[in-house]
């Protein structure tokens, strides 16, 4: 009888060849035809023997593509060192009651040579079958064995090409996952570290290809592959898991494995450094600590890639996988994926926050604010989803939706003569004329352009794109107000503010909200508001959250204000029901 452990390993070897079930190969069929002609038999089979069945990769003269193991002659062949020959199956006590023998024109003669892997495991056989009794001589037995060796050569060649990278010759991603599964066969599955080496990030790789061609980048990849193989000799196996990335596994018990990886990256960088920074690949690594779990294997490389991305962002040699960053990354992906669905449903909607004059308390306008109630993530802040939309090229689509929603809402406000301000992203000025889009929308919904205010954040992006100034001038010519939002933070600077065709300045809420308790913010706010007023800008304070704050900005000469203390954002239908003047207790005499 077979040893239980050796049978387990044999079945593992068979399962490793699962791809042969669907792989087409004329060479297997050719060997079958050659055997049929040489031995003058009607049936030749190339079989792989599993636990409960045998199935045939190639066959001649046999209709079925598999048989149950209790009907298998080949299950006996794999136990032999050489050829198994059954001269007359009807007289052999092992097979005489086999349905394949007792059937009309059933099997009488069978000879099979085992298909053995390099590790000695018999995975199946090459067999010849006849309906008449027969006997092979020694020379014919040798030929049958030679043909079986030819079959194994084909199988091994296919394994080699399927499980190794054609450029580096290293085991590929398929082999990595196969070896990862083998970890489960070890008696003690200890913690390990998966190290993923990013030899060349995609942007740098694209630049290098444009500059020096694909040959040079492949040469660098090959050089790194060879160095990894040498550096890891006796320590681990290097895998080439995709075009520009390699991985290997270390045991956490290895002393200073982090230092080992750091020094390895150092050597790779020194080895591939060139005179030009453009053609220096600067490899980085990502590391994931894991314990064998077949259910998590598919996610292991993704986590390592995330760690590599963290290393790129931090400009470090390597980074360890961070589950919190990963969750944030996947959450952002979910948001980007669900934007279209949100726009087509009621997940995304607008609210309007009123803005009041500080001279007479009148409601003069309302800011349109986008909200997202995600079915799985709940209420998502614009501070989170707007950057996601901008990074993923979705913001223009969302802005067009907002414009249509605002115009439609304004058209329904029959007795509400209220200006509305819209926030635009820097990306809204790329590859389109946002002024023309707004003009056509006003025309379509019969909205006077002077009832709109466009809010933008001041920054270097305005001067970097000459089309922005032109489009902003077009908006002002239509009669729309242009407001500089969040003024007093970031790039805000009066020295070049005159270059921008804006007529409204909105004081940044970070200055306003903490105004009563911050003498420094009081000085900044008073200075900005006075200078802006002297230069002819209309000024707005946003983030008013208490009476003291309101009193101070009024004292500093601010024209308008908005904030929770004055009014919370309201749904479109509820805006008309809100007060159109500040209550007397909130109105501060100037």
UniProtKB/TrEMBL annotation:
User: What is one Pfam family matched by this protein?
Assistant: EAL
GO terms, molecular function:
cyclic-guanylate-specific phosphodiesterase activity
SUPFAM superfamilies documented for this protein? EAL domain-like, GAF domain-like, Nucleotide cyclase
The record's annotation in InterPro entries points to: Cyclic-di-GMP_PDE-like, EAL_dom, EAL_sf, GAF, GAF-like_dom_sf, GGDEF_dom, Nucleotide_cyclase, Rev_trsase/Diguanyl_cyclase
The residue ranges of the EAL domain are 332-583
Q: What is this protein called?
A: EAL domain-containing protein
């Amino acid at each position: 009888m077979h040893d239980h452990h050796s049978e387990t390993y044999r079945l593992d070897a068979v399962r490793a060849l699962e791809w042969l079930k669907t792989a087409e190969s004329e060479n297997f069929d050719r060997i079958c035809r050659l055997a049929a002609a040489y031995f003058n038999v009607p049936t030749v089979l190339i079989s792989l023997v599993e636990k409960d069945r045998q199935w045939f990769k190639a066959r001649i003269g046999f209709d079925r593509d598999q048989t149950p193991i209790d009907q298998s002659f080949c299950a006996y062949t794999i136990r032999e060192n050489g050829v198994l020959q059954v001269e007359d199956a009807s007289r052999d006590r092992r097979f005489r009651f086999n349905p394949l023998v007792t059937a009309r024109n059933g099997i009488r003669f069978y000879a099979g040579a085992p298909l053995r892997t390099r590790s000695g495991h018999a995975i199946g056989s090459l067999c010849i079958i006849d309906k008449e009794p027969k006997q092979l001589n020694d020379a014919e037995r040798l030929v049958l064995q030679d043909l079986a060796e030819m079959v194994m050569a084909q199988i091994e060649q296919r394994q080699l090409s399927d499980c190794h990278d054609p450029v580096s010759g290293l085991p590929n991603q398929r082999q990595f996952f196969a070896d990862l599964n083998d970890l489960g066969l070890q008696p003690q599955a200890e913690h390990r570290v998966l190290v993923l080496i990013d030899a060349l990030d995609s942007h740098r790789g694209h630049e290098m290809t444009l500059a020096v061609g694909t040959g040079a980048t492949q040469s660098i990849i090959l050089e790194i592959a060879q160095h990894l193989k040498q550096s890891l000799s006796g320590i681990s196996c290097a895998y080439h898991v995709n075009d520009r990335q390699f991985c290997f596994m270390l045991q956490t018990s290895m002393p200073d494995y982090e230092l080992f990886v750091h020094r390895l990256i150092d050597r790779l960088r020194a080895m591939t450094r060139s005179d030009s920074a453009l053609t220096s690949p600067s490899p980085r690594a990502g590391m994931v600590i894991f314990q064998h779990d077949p259910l998590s294997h598919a996610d292991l490389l993704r986590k390592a890639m995330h760690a590599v991305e963290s290393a790129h962002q931090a400009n470090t040699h390597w980074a360890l996988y961070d589950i919190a960053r990963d969750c944030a990354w996947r959450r952002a992906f979910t948001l980007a994926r669900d934007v279209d669905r949100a726009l087509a449903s009621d997940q995304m909607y607008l609210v309007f926050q009123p803005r009041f004059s500080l001279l007479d308390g009148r409601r003069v306008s309302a800011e349109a604010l986008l909200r997202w109630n995600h079915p799985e993530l709940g209420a998502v802040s614009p501070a989170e989803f707007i950057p996601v939309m901008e990074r993923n090229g979705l913001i223009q689509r969302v802005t067009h939706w907002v414009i249509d929603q605002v115009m439609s809402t304004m058209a329904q406000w029959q007795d509400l003569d209220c200006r509305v301000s819209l926030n635009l992203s820097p990306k809204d000025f790329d590859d389109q004329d946002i002024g023309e889009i707004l003009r056509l929308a006003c025309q379509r919904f019969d909205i006077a352009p002077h009832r709109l205010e466009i809010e933008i954040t001041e920054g270097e992006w305005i001067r970097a794109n000459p089309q922005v100034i032109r489009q902003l001038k077009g908006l002002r010519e239509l009669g729309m107000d242009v407001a500089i939002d969040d003024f007093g933070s970031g790039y805000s600077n009066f020295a070049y503010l005159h270059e921008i065709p804006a007529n409204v300045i909105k004081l940044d809420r970070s200055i306003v909200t903490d105004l009563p308790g911050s003498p420094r913010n009081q000085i900044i706010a008073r200075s900005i508001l006075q200078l802006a007023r002297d230069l002819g800008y209309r000024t707005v304070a946003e983030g008013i959250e208490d009476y003291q704050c309101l009193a101070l900005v009024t004292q500093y000469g601010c024209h308008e204000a908005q904030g929770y203390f004055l009014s919370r954002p309201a749904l479109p239908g509820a805006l008309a029901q809100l007060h159109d003047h500040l209550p007397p207790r909130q109105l501060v005499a100037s």
